[in-house]
Each structure stands twice: as C-alpha cells, then as structure tokens.
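Weekly modeling sync, notes
Attendees: S.R. (lead), two postdocs, one rotation student

Agenda item 3: backlog of single-chain predictions. S.R. asked that every request posted to the team notebook include the full sequence so nobody has to chase files. The rotation student volunteered to paste the first one in as an example of the format we agreed on. Action items at the bottom.

Example entry:
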Amino acid sequence: MSSQDIPEENLPAEQDATQVAVADEKHPFADPGLPPHEHRIQDIDERAAKRSERTVALLFTVSMLATVGFIASYVAIPHDKSVFIFPIGHLNALNFALGLTLGAALFCIGAGAVHWARTLMSDVEIADERHAIEATPEVKAKVMADFKQGAKESALGRRKLIRNTMFGALALFPLSGVVLLRDLGPLPGTKLRHTLWSKGKLLVNMNTNEPLRPSDVAVGSLTFAKPEGLEEHDHDFQTEIAKAALMIVRLQPNDIKDPQELAWSHEGIVAYSKICTHVGCPISLYEQQTHHVLCPCHQSTFDLSDGARVIFGPAGHALPQLRIGVNDEGYLEALGDFEEPVGPAFWERG
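Predicted structure, as returned to the notebook:
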C-alpha cells in the first residue's frame, strides 16, 4: 500500500517546506533543502501500526523470557556439565546457556527499541538554525515544547502494550546482574573466625612432622607448627594452614611482660599465629635479643614479649596467641582455638 492509495483526508498534515536558497555571489553554495517527505505505511494505515506495535511488544516479551531463562539456567544447570553444539563442538553447558539467554535479552530490548523508532515514532525531518551555545529563554521553551511533542508522537501513553512490555523487559533485565553477584563466592559464615586448633590438638613440627615436646624448643629459637592431623596431601591443606600456621618461641618467663601471655604459655614457650595481621603474609624473621618478629612483606614488627603488640609497620592489631599446655604424655597441646580471628581484619569482624 502506498500514499497514492489513501484518500487525501487520511494523510498526515504536511509541514511547511523549507525554503531552498539560490546560489549567488555572496552565497556560492545553494542550500539543497530537504527532499519531499515520504509517509511510511504505519503513518497511513492503523492496521500496519498495530502490527508494528505487536512486533515491538513481542521482542520485549522475548527479552523478559530470556532474562527468566538466564536466572533459571544459573540455578538449574551444573557448572561442570558440557554439551555438544554443532559445529562448535563441546561447550560448558552453563556458560553457553548464560551467554545465549543474556544475549537474547539484550538483543530483543535493542531490536524492539529500534523497530519502535523506525515504524511508529515520528520520522519527519526538521531543519533548525544554528544558535549560540547559551540558550535563550525562548530556545529553552522551544526545547521543552519539542520534547513534549516527541513524547506525544512516540505514542507511549496511547500504545499501552508497548509501554508495559518495555517496562517489563527493562525491569527484569537488571536481575541478571544481581544473580551474577552470587559468583562472588559463598558467604564465609564463621569460617574466618575458627581454625583447626581445638582443645587437645598436638603441636606438630612443620619440618619433622613430629609432635613437639617442651624440650624440643630451646630458649631463643623459632619453631613453626601445625595442628595434629593436617597433612600436606590433604585437598584443603593450603586453606587450613593459612589460618592455623603457628610460630613457637621460648622466652625466659621473667622476660614476658604481658600477664595473659604468661598465663597462656608453658614454661616460657609461647605460641602465636604466623599470619601477619596486615595482609596475611607469613612471618618468618625473629630477633632473639629483642624478642621481635618481623613480617618480610611490609616490615610490620611485633613484640613477642609483650602480647605480640605492633611496634612498627602497617599492621592494625597484635598477633593472636594460642593457649598451650602439656598432655599426660609430655607433648605440647592446644587448650582451645584462637580467641580472635587470625590474619587481617575483615569488615564484619567487629
């Protein structure tokens, strides 16, 4: 159907034609003006406009379904499942489903907006004179009037099917991003507050893999220990040793300044977390004369004779101490877990 097939009274009103300038000596280049405006089929046939409206609504609806499919795929498809897609080959099923549904949701929103603009919104060419950057009150009033006119011509208020499905698609799509936040990892719960140390756990030498006796720790020496039962071949060894690594130092009891440190020690043997409270580096440098331990990463220094308090560097708090004692067989054992979380601070530590 063309505009020649439509009665004159059904055609939209024409705007005033732009005056075409003629070239002269002052203006050697003539203004070509605008070509005659050609009406679209949707402008002259409401049935065609309704078809375009339904097409746009369908695209927005497909976007909503794709967003729901994205969330369902994330929840239902195992992360290690694979599928064969010809001609690509074997793919991770979860990644394929997430990419397909996310792409479809985005594409349908964009395609719906483009089809809406090309078939239903006004496409009348408008020529306007250039003006100064600073808008005059008259220009501002004209801009607002043009905006209102554009909003009216978009038929957003009249074509409720497009409006409602567009709002639905735009409202549902951000849920994809919210669901992806789940991949930041499971909440730690109380795992950061507890280690493998518990009452009765033997202190095992990291080098010899043998339980420690008090006689194995000489005055001025530094020994590293791990909890009984934790072996290097365990699948969670790195995770657990990062919290449970222990350094053991023997001081003269009269050199210990902190009363609690003395009460939690055994014959001058003190056990502290090896994990620096700055960013979690392993502490390995010990000054025998000053009883200071130094973190090699950022030089945080702790005084083991005074509750392992921070005396230098960026660490925010003292090293946690482990209460120790001796069991009936003469081996050093833990009397419980650390009283506070080991390592760096975290936002919910309090």
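Discussion: group reviewed the output briefly. The longest strand covers residues 222-227.
Action items: rotation student to repeat for the remaining queue; S.R. to check formatting next week.
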